[in-house]
């Protein structure tokens, strides 16, 4: 039986664009997730998944840990998501001598914060395991899902606003887009389940490599709190949101806003990237307003030292070209 390759686009994109600057890319052929870049000077550089030889190791490791990055961002005066606190799986809580920071302590903390609360893995990516819990049942389901894949969990207050990612490369915002959670738009005839299957087929037809899991329990919970289910028929034009996180990897939509970012938000993203010791960074913001307006109320959701653009590239030909141009700039900066 032939092994299934992972579907990350980075290696293939780098192979395509590297010759433009006289470089070559050797991609490991079995899984296509690691590769070697050879620049015309003979210098070698490497990548694994979406991590390139660009950011320093210390800054990258901190950025991968949401709690630690929150600690440093807060210390430097950046507005982080409020009420954020970590809790541990039973096994890990015992191992580090904090048996009282377990799932039950997390629930008591959630009650003190007041439902609903956000529950998310501390080291996850692409929106995996992120849930909005409205009550005790939601909370324990979400927490157990987190602990299935991570030993550290974050509990936070939810913040409302538009979700944006700004990608910074060496003191410049090279991409910015609004991320919109997985949703369907009613036509007055089809059920939510039928609309979702249609959307999934459209993704496949457009070669967008996004796996919409119709059995994701978070979708059922989200619908239930809107007094809906998969058999509900939304009115024509009615938009129904199916998840709370807006990651493109979970079926979210994107809207390019690179040319609309207010200079103050550009300056903020560049400064935060530099303050976190990074050269390439995805800065995720929740803004109570719009990215083209002067900053008012906003929060730094997280920073990402390996901001993968695979899902964005597969939305369409225009986005694919944008991503190729972005990675060409990254290669030029790596060569320096």
TrEMBL record:
UniProt cross-references to Pfam families, sorted A to Z: Dala_Dala_lig_C, RimK
GO biological process: SOS response
Keywords for this protein: ATP-binding, Ligase, Nucleotide-binding
Molecular function GO labels: ATP binding; D-alanine-D-alanine ligase activity; metal ion binding; ribosomal S6-glutamic acid ligase activity
Bilayer-crossing regions: none
Residues of the ATP-grasp domain: 70-332
Protein name: ATP-grasp domain-containing protein
UniProt organism field: Candidatus Wildermuthbacteria bacterium RIFCSPHIGHO2_01_FULL_48_27b
